Each structure stands twice: as C-alpha cells, then as structure tokens.
Amino acid sequence: DPVQLAAHQWQQFLESSPDPMWIKDTRGRYVAVNKAYLRADPGQTQDLIGKTDFEIQTRDRAEMYVADDQVAIHDGVCEHEFSSVDQEGNLKHYNTKKTALRDADGLLTGVLGQARDITHQWRLELALSVENHRSSLFQRMLEAAATATSVGSFLADVLTIAHELFGCDRGGVYILNPDGRTAH
Fold this sequence. Notes:
With 184 residues, this protein is of the alpha+beta class. It has helices at 2-15, 35-40, 53-56, 59-75, 119-147, 151-166, and strands at residues 21-24, 30-33, 77-85, 91-102, 108-117.
C-alpha cells in the first residue's frame, strides 16, 4: 500500500530528529509524530494519528496551532516561541517552525512542524537580563554617590535603588553603635 509506505518513510524521517516533529495533512489531521513529540507533550499518545488539534488540545491551544498552520500554508513557513511542561513536569521553551509541504506540482499536501528546545538559551537570556538590570542599578548607585549634594539625598537615592534591587517594600538606615552590639 503506497499510503502505508509513505507514512512509514515519514515516520523514519521524523525519528531521525531529536526535536519534536510532526506532519499534518491538508485537513489538519496528524499523519505522523516522532517519539520526541510524544515526550514533549505529556498528554499525547500515538493514538493522535488521524485527529485534529481540536480533538487533542485545549480550544485556545488548538486555535493557535491551526492559525500557525494557516500562516505556514499561506506564507510557506511560520515560526514562533511557546512554553510547555514536559512529562517530568519541567517548564520547557520551544522555537516552533512549521513549513508547508507541497508535491512536485506545487499542490499542498500538508504541514511539517518542528519544535526546537531553547530552554537553556531562554534561561541564559533571562539570567543576562537580570544581571544587566542589577548592573544598571549599581551604576545608578555610583552616580548617586558622585552627584549627591548631601548624605540625606544620597541615602534616599540608595534606598530607592536597594528597594528595586532587592524587592523590599520598605527599609531604613541603621548605624552600628561603637559597642558593636546595638544599632540606631
């Protein structure tokens, strides 16, 4: 059966990738998914073949997936990022790319999707963003020290910056007494 052979060949192709991959037909029904796809989407099993997103996903997610499929069909490709929880309960971030599949005559035969796990990159970008924010706050502290006209204005600036830096809702300045045991 040529259809079975094609499905088997698609399955072999999908399994060659460590990334979650899937193929849908022109009616939005899943034709093939790889094991990485099933691991990434813990609610799914192999019995999603022949089903649409509306049969296996929440309505919001299905609407988003179908809209992306339509962009891929219209423009040839669609790309976006999304987050999901895997089988182990870990939050994962993916860059998803969908491509229109066409036969030799240019007729649409389906949509190929691939989700690249970018969790590590996302975490690095988040850490860099946090560090950049902290760095700018420390820079503001140095500028406050250099431009302060009084100790009071400097302390007010530093407390405002410390509030931002540490997320405190209030604070104060305490001076250690000479005995080293008490403060005021």
